[in-house]
Specification:
Elements lengths: L8 E9 L4 E7 L4 E7 L2 H4 L2 H14 L10 E7 L2 E7 L3 E3 H7 L6 H20 L12 E4 L4 E3 L4 H13 L11 H5 L6 H17 L9 H9 L8 H4 L5 H10 L11 H10 L10 E2 L6 E2 L8 H30 E3 L5 E3 H7 L1
Antiparallel strand pairs: 1-2, 2-3, 3-5, 4-5, 6-7, 7-8, 9-10, 11-12
């Protein structure tokens, strides 16, 4: 496929494709640097309303100047070619990093990456920008260990255009909030928090929160009122109780029970006690695992009482057995020194 023709841009290679369209590596004479150029797909470029929305989104993204968000440097049009120019990054998506990992990430490294994603997301939300498609593929790890969120804003543009044309749900099912399955376009920052938790869960455990990456299986589990996400600490005992509870609070099926802002996540990361759960969670029967108070089994305290009674009973019986054994095998001699009945029989 031939490269797009955009004045002032010398295209070098096509590097990727996806929902948004093709991504190219190019040199911008205007900016004097190598950039990544994203081009609006041809079928969307035919819709004047989509093109107008694209220009508005691009203008809004120019304001997202944050260390953990990829910078939009330029945007424009050449005939029916509409494009964005972004800073060029050397590194790999978090998705590739997860696939390459042979062991779980250390807690410190996990919190560094997860916390950086939260910082970028919190900044975008303060500017009124919602991501709507946060996945490991949309998080970039640079060669110098920076963490960058990419593809802000355009998930909604694509969702609205695709839904209106086909009626299909658009998004990455394993990372989508339950409410996003109902309406891909009409979601807010609370859905981003679920997606952030799903990304963190996958990074920490190598598994998907709902146990599958298939939309039908995910929807079935989400629709089950009894379904609970397995605490990530069950799969990865290297993460702290705090981290486990942070991820689970992000992943509440009911949006009202999730963090209501990313700032809340950052506060718990920074100030939470690693050995204590956050967000009202309590320890479940499995060591290190947590469950929300509403899901705590009835009679938990009663069960614990009977466990203690049984334990004390066992100790009493053990003590009584020891006394009986001592009386049987140890008998006092005339000089007051004890000797075993077995040794006395041996000397007769």
């Amino acid at each position: 496929m031939p490269f797009p023709r955009i004045a002032g841009y010398e295209f070098v290679a096509e590097t990727a494709g996806g929902n948004f369209g093709s991504i190219y590596k190019a040199y911008s004479e205007k900016l004097g640097r190598t950039v990544a150029v994203k081009v609006l797909p041809a079928h969307l470029a035919k819709d004047d309303r989509v093109v107008a929305r694209f220009a508005r989104e691009a203008q809004a993204l120019l304001k997202l100047d944050h260390p953990n968000i990829v910078r939009v440097l330029d945007h424009g049009s050449e005939g029916r070619t509409h494009f964005l120019a972004l800073e060029w990054l050397d590194g790999m998506p978090l998705e590739q990093e997860i696939e390459n990992l042979e062991t779980f990430p250390a807690e410190e490294e996990f919190l560094r990456v997860f916390g950086a994603c939260a910082e970028g997301l919190a900044f975008a939300h303060r500017q009124g920008v919602v991501h709507r498609d946060l996945t490991p593929a949309n998080i970039f790890l640079t060669m110098d260990k920076q963490v960058k969120l990419v593809d802000f804003g355009f998930a909604k543009l694509l969702a609205e255009a695709t839904i209106s044309a086909t009626g299909e749900i658009l998004g990455s099912a394993p990372y989508m909030a339950p409410e996003q399955f109902q309406n891909s376009a009409a979601v807010d920052h609370i859905a981003d928090i679920f997606s952030l938790g799903a990304v963190g869960y996958r990074y920490a455990t190598g598994k998907f929160p709902c146990g599958s990456d298939q939309p039908a299986a995910i929807l079935k589990r989400m629709a089950d009122p009894a379904f609970q996400i397995t605490p990530p600490i069950v799969f990865n005992r290297n993460i702290s109780v705090k981290t486990d509870s942070i991820l689970r609070k992000c992943l509440e099926m009911d949006p009202r029970k999730r963090y209501q802002s990313v700032e809340g996540i950052l506060t718990d990361i920074k100030y939470g006690d690693p050995d204590e759960p956050v967000g009202g969670y309590v320890r479940a029967s499995m060591p290190g695992a947590l469950m929300p108070p509403a899901a705590r089994p009835a009679g938990t305290h009663k069960n614990r009482k009977w466990i203690w009674i049984a334990a004390v009973s066992v100790l009493i019986l053990a003590a009584a057995g020891f006394v009986a054994w001592k009386k049987k095998w140890f008998k006092p001699e005339a000089d007051g020194k004890p000797t075993t009945s077995r040794s006395k029989r041996a000397t007769r």
